[in-house]
Amino acid sequence: MQRITFQSTHALFNSAATRRIEHAGLAALPPNTLMQRAGLAVAQLAMAVAPHARTVWIACGPGNNGGDGLEAALHLHQGGKAVVVTWLGDEARLPADALAALGRARAADVPFADTPPAGLTPQDLAIDALLGLGSSRAPEGRMAAWIAALNAGAAPVLAVDLPTGLNADTGATAGEVNTWVHARHTLTFLTLKPGLFTGNGRDAAGQVWLDTLAVNTAEAPSAVLSGPPDFRPRAHASHKGTFGDVAIIGGAPGTTGAALLAGSASLHGGAGRVFVALLGNALQADGAMALAAAHPELMLRAVDTLDLGRQTVVCGCGGGQLVAAALPRVLAEAPRLVLDADALNAVAGDAALQAQLRHRGAGRPTVLTPHPLEAARLLGVPTAEIQADRLSAARQLAERFQCVVVLKGSGSVIAAPNAAPRINPTGNARLATAGTGDVLAGLTGALLAGGHPAFEVACDAVYLHGQAANAWPTETSLTAGALAAALGAAPHRSK
Q1: Does the pTM exceed 0.70?
Q2: C-beta separation of 414 from 394 below 8 A
Q3: Distance (Å, whole) CA 57 – CA 86
Q4: What are 473-486's pLDDT values in tens digits?
Q5: Which helix H or strand E contains 207, and what residues bound it?
Q6: H-type helices in 108-167, by residue range?
């Protein structure tokens, strides 16, 4: 059994791949072996996370997930725990392994009840073994009532394989908040599933544990959970030219802060020099001298004076409608490009810009950093459709525009053409504040200026961005400006 700590990369497998692995394991082992191994693993983890629990409620569903719960109940009961099993199964329709588990539990006099036990405390434990890999619709009736009881109860919840109501492939949940389980721990079997780490997965799953049940995995991963960047110390004999120039284009009047945040993030992210080109009359409206005094490391320029053919460009942060006029030249000349915010909105509304973006080619690395609404505009679909399958949406964008895409959100997805997507494990709700996306765009530009592959750069930037939020003191608010400054503590790749 392995505790997933996000300190290394992990292969992720969708439902179809997991079922193939499961079928291979079932074919190679005696009957009931996998379920007995799974039940024992659940019982062992239950004892580890709640060693002093007086009562363990195990909510068992009508299929094999419920069978895993019944096997766990047997071991916990034999270990001296006060176990209460509530079961939704129909004996006449049970799969063979689950029927065997039911017989074993009954033979051992495991206590069954029609309703959940009352009065569970934070020292007790509840186990969600209602629905596993096959769940696809919002639960109803008694199952829905038990899900609500699991969520409302004082006892921490351990989910078996998947929290009930969570889609293993997408991290989407069906129905309202109380139609899916919010677990403190999830013990998943055979493989790690993408849905545990994106969408609602992080909120549903809590701490994820993996037990492969000693079954070998011979499948290619469907996705990858990112690990920390492989940074090396910078060479001592470096100079500012070693780490490249970044040009920030954005900051229309009234939204100059977005461009300045991106510029600050590029500096703290390791760029050698950062130029900021504000749009329209922003320099006059917001005061060039005041801006220069407040941000002396940033070099303020007019857009038409930038040497775009020699710079890594970050375009769109706070650009408003004015950024559209700059995009044809940016798309044509920038050798390395990050498009964010209003630049993405401009592309979404202009077929000519879309065609120009598609034809930049692999030789000119490009990273798009949309949030779900911007992704929806680019694909011409509702935002809910993006969130219903974040990995698919990111892959569609990457293929359509032939570039690297960072679909932001809980479990940001990084996709590139013809590559397994990555899911980022770092970050938290402190990032849900204005300007943090501009910081990510600027950091991505800084790392891209170092000359490394765009997909690698995007994965590193998103990881570091989230890691800075994770390291922030819990009692202190995190602003975008503070986040940009916190990036300076991170090491960087040498060119």
Answers
A1: yes
A2: yes
A3: 8
A4: 877 789 999 999 99
A5: strand 207-211
A6: 141-152
